[in-house]
Amino acid sequence: MKFELTILGSGSSVPTSDRNSTAQVLNVLERYFLIDCAEATQHQLRRFHVPYNKIGHIFISHLHGDHYFGLLGFLSTLSMQGRKGEMHIYADVRLQEIMACQSRVLGSRFNFPLVFHPLSRQEETIYEDKVVTVTSFPLKHHYETPVCGFLFREKKRERTIRKEEAAAWKVPIAFMQYLKQGADFITPDGEIVSNRRLTLDPPPSRSYAYMTDTLYRERFATYVSGVDLLYHEATYSKVDERLAKEGYHSTAEQAACLAQEAGAGKLLLGHFSARYTDLSGLLAEAQAIFPNTFLCHDGEVFGIPPVKRNF
Ligand SMILES: [Zn+2]
Fold first, then answer.
1. Same domain flag for 180 and 292
2. How far, in Å, from the CA of 156 to the mean position of ligand 1?
3. Distance (Å) from CA 36 to ligand 1 centroid
4. For residue 38, which of 60, 78, 67 has the smallest C-alpha distance?
5. Is residue 289 part of a domain?
6. How far apart are the CA of 13 and the centre of ligand 1, in A?
7. Residues 151 and 287 in one domain
8. Does 28 share its domain with 171?
9. 311 found inside a domain
10. Which residues are catalytic?
11. What is the CATH number of the domain that holds 209?
């Protein structure tokens, strides 16, 4: 029952020898969601052994190169490898224009259907299936560049059947699905057996939020209230707060404030400026406010276990 995040790139606009620009893969019960797709993301997918053919949904936070320049290359590779299944892309509507232009100039197209889902400037549910919902919400970056954050929230899971109890009460196989949904069982003699006797509570639902590139705004915490795992950009140290403001980015300290205001379980810092070779200062300033903070490194995997606040 995996809910697992793989960091493909922890750097910002300029990649370094050990930090690629931004991309991540979230695996929610074998659904693979690609979040941003910087240049060389397909190399990172191979390098870290991600089964990239299983990716069916790609979420692009905004149209700056360090978040989408790898998309065309990745899709081209999938096409050459014979992919047939739909690929859903959630992004600024202008990405469709960019891709149409590329296709027109080259006179080529992908061998699989691309389905575009334009992001709006409002908080909204953009994807839903039987186990997870994805919400997008607006952040604050350059004026001409709308940016969205994403929240992945596992749906409430079914109750777990106590097999020995169910067998003892001779519950028919066909009734098991109703037990999982909370129904009581009535025996052929009319005796009511409470659901609590036959099932256990399901494990708590898990959640992950992704917030980059953005100025710090306290009100953004409401979008991700109570999230288990929060990724927040920390492009700069508080020492360079002026640069953060000029570039519409956040400091590590501001990321920690946001995590604290949201009541997050755990904070991951990323999107580091190439100017920092040693990130220990950024980690320290964030941990001073939000102790359960970690730095992201390329290739690192962060799991969210199916128990609450047990990191
Ligand atoms: Zn960026």
1. no
2. 33
3. 10
4. 67
5. yes
6. 5
7. yes
8. no
9. no
10. 66
11. 3.60.15.10
* Distance separating alpha carbons of residues 302 and 2, to the nearest angstrom: 11
Answer yes or no: pTM beyond 0.85.
yes
pLDDT in tens, 199-232: 998 888 899 999 999 999 999 999 999 999 999 9
Name the pairing type of β-strands 114-118 and 87-91: parallel
Expressed in angstroms and rounded, the spacing between residue 65 Cα and the centre of ligand 1 is: 8
Tens of pLDDT, residue by residue over 36-66, are: 999 999 999 999 999 999 999 999 999 999 9
Count of all residues that appear for the chain in the document: 311
What total of structural domains would you count in the chain?
2
Q: What is the largest CA-CA distance in the chain?
A: 75
Which of 88, 82, 230, 86 is CA-nearest to residue 150?
Answer: 230
Burial class (CB in 10 A: 0-12, 13-18, 19+), 4: middle
Residues 48 and 122 in one domain: yes
- Alpha-carbon distance of 71 to 73, in angstroms, equals 5
Residue 310 lies in a domain: no
143 alpha carbon – ligand 1 mean position (Å): 15
Its domain, for residue 191, covers 160-199
Residues 178 and 95 in one domain: no
Angle at 287 between CA 206 and CA 248, to 5 degrees: 85
CA 299–ligand 1 middle distance (angstroms) = 18
